[in-house]
Design goal:
By secondary structure, the protein is mostly helical. The chain has two domains: about 15-180, Orthogonal Bundle (Arc Repressor Mutant, subunit A); about 180-229. It is about 50% helix and about 10% strand. A hairpin with a 6-residue loop joins strand 2 and strand 3. Helix 1 packs across helix 2 (about 40-50) and helix 1 (about 15-30) crosses helix 3. It is elongated, with a radius of gyration of 24 Å.
Length: about 230
């Protein structure tokens, strides 16, 4: 039996899903709402649990976020700032992982939104960093994929093209190995579900149109007027 293809994450950093969400939320808010950054625990919780630009959606408690922060700070990925009555937190991702700004942006987006194509990443990065074109995004992704073992190994993996998809998606490796077959299968299943839902909706609309035509025909007959085509 053939083995399932996987890609190994950097040995120095393996985050939980909650830790990745907390870290990526700090990375996002540093760029999108700098006036309210660093973040308090409560503001960070709201950012982690927001219903937009998140995949998957989460409903984390302050206790869960505090536990994640306690793990991230010794890794030099998050720092608690001083000079405020309320504890506030900021990320140190770029220095902690040792990647350029553009690569940090792409990793943050992948942690927040899940696997994405290079085109989707360029579009979603608009408020974080403006990439000149898709080729520049792909260039940084390829650097992250080819990262040497001395630097900690690959940080992203390019997933196989899903059936019906035009482009391949990329996934981060900060939470551990990615089962690329399962990920591709999940994408295909999502596409199949969308197609089935669309077909069901079209059939429903066709039934409604047919019923409306019958009603119009009956009214025209009752009024003694010719039905127009």
């Amino acid at each position: 039996m053939s083995s399932i293809p996987t890609t190994t994450p950097p040995a120095s950093i393996t985050l939980s899903d909650i830790e990745a969400r907390v870290l990526a939320t700090l990375m996002e808010k540093a760029r999108t709402v700098p006036d309210s950054y660093p973040l308090s625990l409560n503001t960070l919780m709201l950012g982690c649990n927001q219903k937009t630009s998140r995949e998957p959606l989460m409903n984390l408690t302050e206790a869960e976020i505090a536990t994640a922060l306690d793990t991230l700070m010794p890794l030099n990925l998050v720092r608690e700032t001083s000079g405020s009555r309320v504890a506030r937190y900021e990320h140190n991702f770029q220095r902690g992982v040792g990647v350029p700004e553009q690569s940090a942006v792409l990793l943050g987006l992948l942690m927040l939104r899940g696997p994405q194509t290079a085109g989707e990443l360029r579009l979603n990065a608009e408020r974080w960093y403006r990439f000149a074109d898709i080729s520049s995004v792909e260039g940084f992704l390829e650097e992250l994929q080819d990262r040497s073992a001395e630097k900690g190994g690959p940080l992203v993996v390019k997933l196989p093209r899903a059936p019906g998809a035009r482009e391949q998606r990329w996934a981060h490796l900060l939470c551990g190995p990615v089962d690329v077959e399962a990920s591709a299968g999940s994408t295909a299943a999502t596409g199949a579900q969308s197609s089935a839902a669309l077909a069901e909706r079209v059939a429903q609309l066709e039934q409604e149109v047919a019923a409306l035509r019958q009603t119009v025909a009956a009214l025209c007959k009752e009024l003694g007027v010719a039905e127009s085509n």
